[in-house]
Amino acid sequence: MNLDSKQIDRADPCGWCLYCKMHRLPFPTEERERAENLGDHIHGDLGMVSVPTPEGHRYYSLLKDEFSEFTDAQLLKKKNEVSTHTIEFCEKVKTQTGRSVKVLRTDQGREYRGERFEQMETRLRDHPPDNLPIQPSTKWSKRKIQ
């Protein structure tokens, strides 16, 4: 079989060829602020278990401190229980280390919005721990708590 290179150049690619050659742009390489102390940045996520536990738990909440890599997990029956777990975790960090959580990073899920989180932010804004200034959050993915 003899193929002419001019014919190959003019061939139109099919839809699947274009789809398979697509790629995502790389993540931005900008430097982001790293945690320098316990509680500076907490990463939170909510997941769903494939089979509910005998007690009826269908979800789990994970909270991880970026500096120490300490991870706290809790089984939940409802998604809205994530606020209780998060607030208890922030209070535990304050009690055990004397440092307050500064930033909570999440995936912008609706479970991280709501009255309980707004009450926590308002309380911390009105009575900031360690007398540090509070800057209001502009994005849900990076919530400044203090």
TrEMBL record:
MF-aspect GO terms: DNA-directed DNA polymerase activity; endonuclease activity; hydrolase activity; metal ion binding; nucleic acid binding; RNA-directed DNA polymerase activity
Keywords, ordered alphabetically: DNA integration, DNA recombination, DNA-directed DNA polymerase, Endonuclease, Hydrolase, Magnesium, Metal-binding, Nuclease, Nucleotidyltransferase, RNA-directed DNA polymerase, Transferase
UniProt xrefs under InterPro entries: Integrase_cat-core, Retrotran_Ty1/copia-like, RNaseH-like_sf, RNaseH_sf
Domain of life: Eukaryota
Biological-process GO terms, alphabetical: DNA integration; DNA recombination
Compositional bias (Basic and acidic residues): 106-129
PROSITE patterns: INTEGRASE
Species of origin: Daphnia galeata
Protein name: Integrase catalytic domain-containing protein
Gene3D superfamilies per UniProt: Ribonuclease H-like superfamily/Ribonuclease H
Occurrences of domain Integrase catalytic (ranges): 24-146
Region spans: Disordered: 106-146
